[in-house]
Design brief:
Rossmann fold, alpha/beta, five-stranded parallel β-sheet
Length: 142
């Protein structure tokens, strides 16, 4: 983990609304958030930046999530970085491929904020409020 008080999470997703939603949830929990729209942009943002956890989508233009993880795992500083994949894909073959690439947790979209926070806290210390009820602030419209 990075030194100092801040705990940083890199959020990579080509959908702006998902990047912003995940960032909002994590910032409310006290985490510092760095955002990228695809794997290549994420690698650029990592240049000289310490992160403690990666949250990535699978399907993105330019460089997808599995390619990003493969590149990260080849770098000594990121070999053991915890990785959460947040995706709408749920096929066993894709999950197995992602697991072999180095994914630690698989979160299926749509997700509830508590599910994301619980997964993050498996790998990072709690740095904000212990209970976060964002899901109570949104109404589901069908």
């Amino acid at each position: 983990m990075s030194s100092g008080k801040s705990v940083s999470v890199l959020v990579v997703d080509d959908a702006l609304c998902i990047r912003e939603l995940i960032s909002l949830i994590l910032r409310k929990e006290g985490y510092e958030v760095i955002k990228a729209a695809n794997g290549l942009e994420a690698l650029d943002k990592l240049n000289g930046t310490n992160i403690d956890l990666l949250i990535t989508d699978l399907n993105m233009p330019v460089m997808n999530g599995i390619e990003l993880i493969g590149r990260l795992r080849s770098m000594p500083d990121f070999k053991s970085l915890p990785v959460l994949m947040v995706t709408s894909e749920n096929q066993a073959s894709i999950r197995n491929h992602a697991c072999r690439a180095g994914v630690n947790e698989w979160i299926l979209k749509p997700f509830i904020p508590k599910q994301l926070v619980d997964a993050v806290r498996k790998y990072l210390p709690a740095v904000g409020p212990e209970v976060y009820h964002l899901e109570q602030q949104f109404q589901v419209v069908s």
